[in-house]
Request: fold
Amino acid sequence: MRQIIVLLVVAAMALAGSIDPNLAVIMANSTDTDLIPVFILAHGQVDRDWVNSATDGMNRAERQQFAVSAMKETAEVAQRGILAELNTTNSENILPLWMANAVYCQATRATIRTMAHRADVVLIERAADPEAGLIEPTEVRPLNAEERGKGLAWGVAKINADDAWALGYEGQGITVAVIDTGVDYNHTDLASNMWHDTPAGLHYGWDFYDNDNDPMDTYGHGTHCAGSVAGMGTAGTETGVAPSATLMAIRINYYGGGEPTWIQAMEFAADHGASVMSTSLGSGQGNVSLRTANENSLTAGLYHSVAAANSGPGASTVLSPGDGPPPWFHPDQTYHGGLSAVVTVGATNNSDVIASFSSRGPVVCWSDYTDSSPLIDPDISGPGVDVVSTQWTGGYTTMSGTSMATPHLAGVAALILSANPALTVAQMDSIIEVTSLDLGTSGKDNTYGAGRVDAYQAVVAALSMTGTEEAQGAAVPAALGISNISPNPVSNFASFNVYTAVAGAADISVFDVTGRRVANIDSSDIESGANAYNWQIPAEMGSGVYFVRATINGGTVSSRMTVVR
Reply:
């Protein structure tokens, strides 16, 4: 176990966190004994640039494992004091979430106010939007005679997936996590593609709804989505865009208040080797915990295909997590805010016309994406009207919705990764957007996004990208590194990671601009790998520029820190 250190220097506890306005309304309408579901977001996130530097030379799987380990350690350090206090207060169902560096719990309003005064808390927001849940299909019906007679589902043919197969790429070697109502893993078109971790005794995936190891679908939606990712056509119709991909079934709470299980599902996918996630869930706009989890998914190297929602045709109707920013900025996105793993999908019909129900952008609910500098959404579109795919308990059924377009995109992501496993998530997004069929207004717009996805053109572009996973592996990672300080400027807690390739005695201290040592953070032996720190700024340290310097095994690295009092 790598060393994890939290240092609490005696200091006055100032109001550091804030209570989200939506939560404040709920609190105002609650009694003193009501338990309110909340996310408590802690200070500190893993620095993506630092992960990229520390993992230079690793393949995709190794990099993902490193990032996940760093996130777990960072969250353990950051949440330690929060969890300790929660265990002494009126709160229940406490659940630490490392992917968002947040703690879910049900707490009284007095407890919420107390926790908001902690210096290691960034934000407390509601965790149970009553409208949150599965993005339900707008129509479900049996196949008609024409649909029953086709050996290849129209959506698969429309995006030219079969032409990509002809090049030899069917998603082989790529695991896609279907985060949904579960999957009928006994369906003849899906059974041989299901994920197994035999050494760990895990089969098919996990059920966070019932908290057990049986993610069997009991509703039908997840099975239909899984079929559009990797349905093999054994029962007569090829429905899957990537018929050789591996399906990881993750069943979540798809009714109101299920958001914590959504983040747990993302954690499971990242922790068990999935490269692509497919999600058809929607919560209220501006969910910070969901966005943070997707920012960390990007750091871990996961591509996340997310339904825009079926709230169209009005503007600004995309729901969380679909309202998160993409991994790559299209040139038409004139304002650059944050990035995340989310690639938001709208729905088109078999004539390449946007579905009336498909949610539209722009997204204006974030501090970095506002009315004056909006985020274009969706990012891409795909087949989502009268989609034929696998049916729970066997056979096929037809559904319509952006939920149906989402697994088409996830399948394309699996195809291009099977063609070029070295692609980053940003490269995957750029390839898919640039090679899409431009529809509607020229360029990327708030109806179609960049256009309707084209699997064949995306695979061809992926093959043309320089570099391979093996060539990347020839690089030598840095022996010592330190991440950026988070947040920066900082007033209370400074969170950061130190990476060392070789264990040794550490001297981690803070210096001012004159080179004078003003504080010591750690003077102990640390193990190789990622080491997380969450250091509380001493009360006597004034505003100014400082440097956190780490010296291990004769090497020294430093990170700039601005303190604002």
About this structure: DSSP finds 14 helices and 27 strands in the chain. The chain has a mean pLDDT of 92.
